[in-house]
Write a structure and sequence with these properties.
The protein is mostly helical. The protein has one domain. The chain contains two helices and no strands. The chain is elongated.
């Protein structure tokens, strides 16, 4: 099972002058998708 990208990734991107806006988008997208998919995955795992 995968977990959402950690916010630490954004902080490291900001610190090392990487594309922090892209990293922030990935953090938001992965967190949003995990909210949808974790219950579905748990349903199939527990049934």
């Amino acid at each position: 099972m995968s977990a959402p990208v950690a916010v630490t990734s954004y902080l490291l991107a900001k610190k090392y002058n990487a594309d922090d806006k892209a990293v922030a988008g990935i953090v938001i997208a992965s967190t949003s998708l995990s909210i949808l998919y974790f219950p579905i995955i748990l349903y199939f795992q527990l049934s």
